[in-house]
UniProtKB/TrEMBL annotation:
The chain crosses the membrane at residues 7-26, 38-60, 126-144, 150-170, 223-246, 252-274, 286-305, 311-330. It comes from the Archaea. It is found in: Cell membrane. Belongs to the UPF0104 family. Pfam families: LPG_synthase_TM. It is a multi-pass membrane protein. This is Uncharacterized protein. GO terms for cellular component: plasma membrane. Keywords: Cell membrane, Membrane, Transmembrane, Transmembrane helix.
């Protein structure tokens, strides 16, 4: 089980290789050769700008709970979390506990407060995503001839989003939090009838501290005034990055089409089948771009370059940042893989 994540990563790579084989490696290679490096450099620059904005948004939630830490320290934590999200089949959520662990350890803050900042940060990302996802799913079902399996996959991804929203609700509602606490204690009682009592008070205190931190952030106007506009800006930049990659290949594609494909691919990537949605995201992007009238070879070339920037470059940078935090974090990542 220790190497399950690595095995799934290799399966995802194999799926991508198979898709490239069916599209035609020679045609894809020709398109890659004639790509305009100017637009590709712009796409890479945008990716680094998004790293900076993600860090800025996280710093808003950390300041809201009184965690004093500089942005230059938050950035490598963020990259490590992104890398773990990419490299583990965990519905793009495996990196968040690790981010909280590193933040708590590095800033001498409780894990509950650190985790609250991470969840609030992801919650800010959820507002624009839900709006864009609902619009996209409705338009895709109406205007694209999708097979039932893809419709089911999209609905499943939306359910994952709803679960996250419910979890956010639990984090701030006293009644829901108490029910959640009792549910955890009952599970412990079932498996550990004699030793569960010593954990009960610790669990209750941890959830209470987590809820206090969440409420403190939600009362801070800066979290919403600056966090939500930043989240919308980040989604715009993600779409703009893909647009510049299309420009590099001389393809005439509207940003609306790119936005629809990007949102659907992100939804598919949330389903915890393969690490970072590897294989599923690439396949969905190639299929939908082709359905929009773009040649399969250019669709594949754009997808390969986009994922090299957003997935592989981010993962490499995140893994490269691991030594910055020492052996314990490296051990956690190795256990996940």
């Amino acid at each position: 089980m220790k190497h399950k994540g690595l095995l799934l990563l290799l399966v995802g790579v194999a799926i991508i290789a198979l898709m490239i084989y069916f599209v035609g490696p020679a045609d894809i290679a020709k398109d890659l050769e004639r790509a305009d490096p100017f637009y590709l450099i712009l796409a890479v620059i945008i990716q680094f700008v998004t790293f900076g904005l993600f860090t800025l948004r996280w710093s808003i939630t950390t300041r809201a709970v009184g965690i004093n830490i500089k942005k230059r320290h938050l950035l490598p934590m963020l990259l490590v979390g992104m890398a773990i999200n990419n490299l583990t089949p965990s519905a793009r959520g495996g990196g968040e506990p690790v981010r909280a662990y590193i933040l708590g350890k590095y800033s001498s803050t409780s894990i509950e407060s650190a985790l609250a900042t991470v969840i609030a940060d992801r919650g800010l990302d959820t507002f624009p995503f839900i709006v864009l996802a609902i619009i996209t799913i409705v338009s895709m079902i109406l205007y694209f001839d999708l097979s039932p399996i893809w419709i089911i996959s999209l609905i499943t991804a939306v359910i994952i989003i709803i679960v996250f929203v419910l979890a956010l609700y639990v984090s701030i509602d006293d009644g829901a939090g108490e029910k959640f606490t009792n549910w955890i204690i009952n599970i412990l009682k079932f498996f550990y009838k004699k030793g569960y009592k010593k954990w009960s008070s610790k669990i209750k205190n941890a959830i209470m501290e987590f809820q206090d931190s969440m409420r403190l952030m939600l009362k801070n106007r800066q979290v919403f005034v600056y966090g939500i506009p930043l989240s919308f800006s980040l989604w715009f930049l993600e779409i703009l990055r893909v647009y510049f990659i299309f420009c590099a290949f001389g393809a005439n594609v509207t940003m609306i089409v790119i936005a629809e494909v990007f949102i659907v691919a992100t939804l598919i990537g949330m389903i915890p089948l393969l690490p970072g949605g590897l294989g599923a995201i690439e396949g969905m992007m190639i299929i939908l771009y082709s359905m929009a009238g773009i040649s399969p070879s250019i669709s594949a070339a754009v997808t390969v370059v986009e994922r090299l920037i957003s997935f592989w470059m981010t993962s490499i940078l995140g893994v490269a940042c691991l030594p910055y935090f020492g052996a314990p974090v490296v051990k956690k990542l190795s256990e996940k893989l």
